[in-house]
Design a protein that fits this description.
The chain has 300 residues and is α+β, with helices and mostly antiparallel strands. 27% of the residues lie in helices and 26% in strands. The chain has seven helices and eleven strands. A hairpin with a 2-residue loop joins strand 7 and strand 8. The longest helix has 33 residues. The radius of gyration is 24 Å and the shape is globular.
């Protein structure tokens, strides 16, 4: 709302009307200029100047030296020797253990059952009162390749720990906006086909590591017959998870039906090795006061 210094009128309602009038005039000017540019492009045809690219926070991103090219030789060499190399070399089949905090409620249990349906070759086990390090040790003995732990607060899932076994790394995410499939309007019914996996906008060294950890949860060779897609979309360091089925409506048109669940992840820390809060070596920790100095600076 306009301030009194901008419109030297004491009446609040009159100031509001003046502000709305000015806003409508500016909108009309922008629409007129847009229509003029459209007519000019139609008249000039192929000689028309290119369309103006709108400014967004993403394309005005602060330059980051850690942004890398996926085809860079140094990056490819590092990926061939990291902890997930065995999976990407097809020498390892994912086997995922999903568990919870020591005391969990109904919403978390329902969320775990949906994750078990989405991630092939995964098992859900109640943690009870077992220590986290003992869980990792038992999971390694039973040849699990990944461990997913869902924590909760106030009877709502609020954190996700992803630990790649047996040597790490371990990522800790903040978990928000959790919605089960039954809460999504016009949702479809899930099947047990292996889904396709899509990773979007993981462009930094840190983002590459996180993306590879998420991809290693799902087996190679998706079953295209099921037409299901799992998407991890990174936007402004928030990783949005979606689960869809695509439907061919014609030779040129494809429809999407969401199956659920949906949730959002925000990376809090990345640790070398398996989970160890006392002696673990942290590769990256999100420090809000030091890192969130600009809206246009991202880390993934």
């Amino acid at each position: 709302m306009a301030s009194q210094s901008r419109y030297p009128v004491k009446n609040k309602q009159l100031r509001l009307r003046l502000y709305q009038k000015e806003k409508a005039e500016k909108k009309k000017e922008r629409r007129t200029a847009r229509d003029k540019r459209k007519r000019e492009r139609e008249e000039l045809g192929e000689q028309a100047p290119p369309k103006q690219k709108p400014k967004t926070i993403e394309n005005m991103r602060v330059a980051d030296e850690t942004i890398v090219d996926p085809e860079d030789e140094e990056v490819l060499a590092d990926e061939q020797t990291d902890e997930m190399a065995a999976y990407f070399d097809r020498k390892q089949t994912p086997k995922v253990l999903i568990t919870t905090c020591q005391k969990c409620t109904l919403k978390t249990v329902q969320f775990l059952s949906e994750l078990e349906e989405i991630i092939p070759n995964s098992e859900v086990h109640r943690r009870k009162s077992i220590d986290m390090k003992q869980v990792i040790r038992q999971a390694t003995e039973h040849e699990f390749t990944d461990l997913v732990v869902i924590n909760e607060d106030r009877k709502q899932p609020n954190a996700l720990i992803l630990c790649h076994l047996p040597d790490g790394p371990t990522a800790h995410f903040k978990l928000t906006a959790v919605r089960g499939g039954w809460e999504i309007r016009n949702h479809g019914r899930r099947t047990h086909h292996r889904p396709e996996v899509i990773l979007n906008h993981f462009s930094t060294r840190l983002g590459h590591t996180v993306g590879r950890m998420l991809a290693a949860l799902f087996p190679h060779d998706p079953e295209f017959k099921g037409r299901t897609v799992v998407t991890f979309h990174n936007q402004r360091d928030y990783v949005f998870f979606r689960h869809h089925r695509y439907i061919f409506r014609s030779e040129k048109k494809v429809g999407m039906q969401e199956l659920g669940p949906r949730f959002t992840l925000k990376l809090r820390s990345l640790q070398q090795g398996t989970f160890d809060t006392k002696y673990g070596q942290y590769v990256w920790i999100h420090k809000r006061k030091d890192m969130d100095t600009s809206r246009r600076k991202f880390h993934l």
